[in-house]
Every structure is written in structure tokens, then in C-alpha cells.
């Protein structure tokens, strides 16, 4: 029997929590196991329920979602991936959320299937950024990290296949889409992504996108 992805919802608006919960619970592979109305409650609920994924609002009373994310990610017993779900299309919130350890950033205007996909991808160890804010964060990250002198095309040697995978990651494709593009299995793509992140000393796919843009590997 397939185990469902366990999710905690953190949002100070009960009506929104109910709506998000209805969307996620409609998927047979997702189970909502807890809710919280403040950041502090979110930390406590995560400790009590040990979910796989937390859908986290940003602005909440007592403790905001960004601080709650930091505490959840820092808890070695939590093992929960945090997806920030917010109304704010703000670059500073996005960057702070990623620095806090969130694996995804989604706007509340997203389609229901995007939310479901984000939760499933987060549980599988993948990240997701809302398309509306991805370009802004890449542009800023590249601007802040671009060296005075142009970097070589590859600071670290990658195999030809790893370069292909990195280019597709930089285009925003997920593992399933990359697998279809390269006609390989999803497991093979996941291995390539893990290998290239390790070789390049990168934390996640967002950093991989920035690296690809800096080193001429993004189309």
C-alpha cells in the first residue's frame, strides 16, 4: 500500500486553510494531518505530527512563517520540507524563504494542480518556485554573484549528460519533464541532479539555476 504524503497547513486565515486542505485532500496520495494559525503553532504542530511537507504562509501572528520555517528546518527530528504559500510576489520574501530553508515558494493565485504538484515534489526532495518570481530571483542572484572577471564556462567538470540535465533544470523543467526530454527514467535524472549538485557544491536546484546562468549553461 502506498504511503500518503503527510501535510501540515499553516495560515492565519481559517477559510484559506479549509480551501487548501480541500484541494490537497482530494488527491489520493496526500493527507492533511494538522493545521496552525500562527508560526508558533506551526512549529508545535510539526513537532506533534511529523509531516512530510508544511505549506507555510508568510505573515502570521506571534511568529511569522519565515522564522517558523527556520525553526522547523533546524529541528533534526522534523524531516519536513517547507513550501511557502503566500499572496506576496516579493523578491525579498522569496530570497529570505530560501535562506530559511524552504524548498518551494508558491503564490496563492496558483492553480490547484500547481499546489498539489508542489507538495508532491517537495515530498520527493525536489523544489519549486512560482514562475512569476523565478526570473526575478535568478536575475538578482546572478547580479550579486557575478565575478568581476568572466568565469570559465565550467568551473567544475561535468559529464555531457550532467551538462544537459543542468541546462534543462535551468529552464525550469522538473525531473519527469527532463526524463521525457532525454528519454531516460526519472530515477536516472534524479541521480544526475544529485551528482551535479554534489560536484558543484550546490545546495539545491535554485542554486543550480543560478550556476547555469553564470556559466553559460542556460538557454
From TrEMBL:
Residues 6-123 form the Response regulatory domain. Residues 151-216 form the HTH luxR-type domain. The keyword Phosphoprotein applies. The modification 4-aspartylphosphate is found at residue 57. InterPro entries: CheY-like_superfamily, NreC/VraR/RcsB-like_REC, Sig_transdc_resp-reg_receiver, Tscrpt_reg_LuxR_C, WalR-like. Keywords: DNA-binding, Phosphoprotein, Transcription, Transcription regulation. Pfam families: GerE, Response_reg. This is Response regulator transcription factor. It comes from Cellulomonas wangsupingiae. The lineage of its organism: Bacteria, Bacillati, Actinomycetota, Actinomycetes, Micrococcales.
Amino acid at each position: 500500500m502506498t504511503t500518503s504524503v503527510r501535510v501540515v497547513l499553516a495560515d492565519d486565515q481559517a477559510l484559506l486553510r479549509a480551501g487548501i486542505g480541500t484541494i490537497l485532500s482530494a488527491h489520493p496520495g496526500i493527507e492533511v494531518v494538522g493545521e496552525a494559525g500562527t508560526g508558533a503553532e506551526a512549529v508545535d504542530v510539526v513537532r506533534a505530527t511529523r509531516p512530510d511537507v508544511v505549506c507555510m504562509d508568510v505573515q502570521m501572528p506571534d511568529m511569522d512563517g519565515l522564522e517558523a520555517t527556520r525553526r522547523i528546518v533546524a529541528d533534526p527530528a522534523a524531516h519536513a520540507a517547507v513550501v511557502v504559500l503566500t499572496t506576496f510576489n516579493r523578491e525579498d520574501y522569496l530570497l529570505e524563504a530560501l535562506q530559511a530553508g524552504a524548498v518551494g515558494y508558491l503564490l496563492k493565485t496558483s492553480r490547484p494542480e500547481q499546489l498539489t504538484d508542489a507538495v508532491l515534489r517537495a515530498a520527493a526532495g525536489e523544489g519549486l518556485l512560482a514562475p512569476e518570481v523565478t526570473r526575478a530571483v535568478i536575475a538578482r542572484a546572478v547580479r550579486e554573484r557575478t565575478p568581476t572577471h568572466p568565469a570559465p564556462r565550467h568551473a567544475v567538470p561535468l559529464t555531457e549528460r550532467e551538462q544537459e540535465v543542468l541546462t534543462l533544470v535551468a529552464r525550469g523543467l522538473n525531473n519527469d519533464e527532463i526524463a521525457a526530454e532525454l528519454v531516460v527514467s526519472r530515477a536516472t535524472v534524479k541521480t544526475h541532479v544529485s551528482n551535479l549538485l554534489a560536484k558543484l557544491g550546490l545546495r539545491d536546484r535554485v542554486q543550480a539555476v543560478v550556476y547555469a546562468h553564470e556559466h553559460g549553461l542556460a538557454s
